[in-house]
Design a protein that fits this description.
52% helix, 14% strand, alpha/beta, 11 helices, 5-stranded mixed sheet, 2 domains
Length: 263
């Protein structure tokens, strides 16, 4: 999973983190819907848009860009997308662009043409590696986990899990699932068994995400056995019955295998 996808997952599931980064009251998150918006002129989407709900007409639209690599054209591209959005949807609202750089050294600086927007508070630039006290915030803790070097990330993850486990029962399972996604992303070279041992996690086996991953892994294992069962002389119907798969899934797997062999 790419880093920007990780952050958009975080913003979608824990929108209050944006307002923490902006040093605004976190309850403002309840005023917004986080969405992905299509820009017809560019045949692409703006993935990070916070649109105020109708009952909060005075609140601005927030356009969020996450950048983990150097990009000299980021400001030109992002502001162009904002204005194309404004032209297409013509909202009668104020707007602000928020750029989240992984670290300051990646930032080429805001072009002179947009300095007025910066001075007017329409452009906010935040360097994620410069976040200081994240000990009391799950959202900021997740960000610190993602941007930290791996040796530091282990301790950050343990603190984060402890914080999640202190949340009320209604939120704990949901937050654990979100942290779980981040752990799998950050420590992608580790098995889930290793992650469980590293962080003392056992309850994540009960989360929907873990179960989905387990199901995907189980399916992948079954699909790998299909060619061997074919060579043993089993029919498609027999394979489907033995692996507890539907016949269409087995046929599709055989078709893909034949295509690979012919290439």
């Amino acid at each position: 999973m790419k880093t920007d996808t990780i952050f958009y997952t975080l913003l979608q599931n824990l929108p209050s983190v944006l307002f923490e980064l902006l040093e605004k009251p976190t309850q403002l998150a309840t005023h917004y819907e986080f969405s992905s918006v299509e820009i017809k002129e560019l045949a692409r989407r703006i993935d990070g848009v916070f649109l105020p709900k109708p009952e909060y007409p005075e609140d601005p639209i927030y356009f969020v860009e996450v950048q983990f690599q150097g990009d000299d054209n980021l400001y030109w591209r992002s502001i162009t997308e904002v204005f194309l959005y404004l032209n297409q949807y013509k909202p009668d609202k104020k707007w602000q662009a928020v750029v989240l750089w992984a670290k300051r050294s990646l930032d080429p600086g805001i072009p002179f043409a947009y300095q007025t927007s910066l001075q007017n508070g329409q452009i906010h630039v935040i360097y994620l590696d410069e976040l200081t006290d994240t000990s009391s915030s799950i959202g900021l803790g997740i960000i610190k986990l993602v941007v930290s070097p791996e040796d530091e990330a282990v301790e950050t993850a343990r603190s984060l899990i402890s914080l999640v486990q202190q949340a009320d029962a209604a939120k704990s399972r949901y937050l654990l699932e979100l942290v779980e996604r981040m752990l799998i992303y950050k420590f992608s070279t580790y098995t889930r068994q290793e992650l469980e041992a590293m962080f003392g996690l056992t309850e994540w086996r009960q989360t929907r995400f873990y179960q989905e991953v387990e199901q995907e892994t189980e399916l992948a294992t079954k699909l790998k056995t299909i060619p061997r069962l074919l060579k043993m002389g089993l029919s498609v119907e027999q394979i489907a019955e033995a692996l507890e798969l539907d016949i269409e899934t087995v046929q599709q797997a055989i078709k893909q295998q034949n295509k690979k062999e012919s290439e």
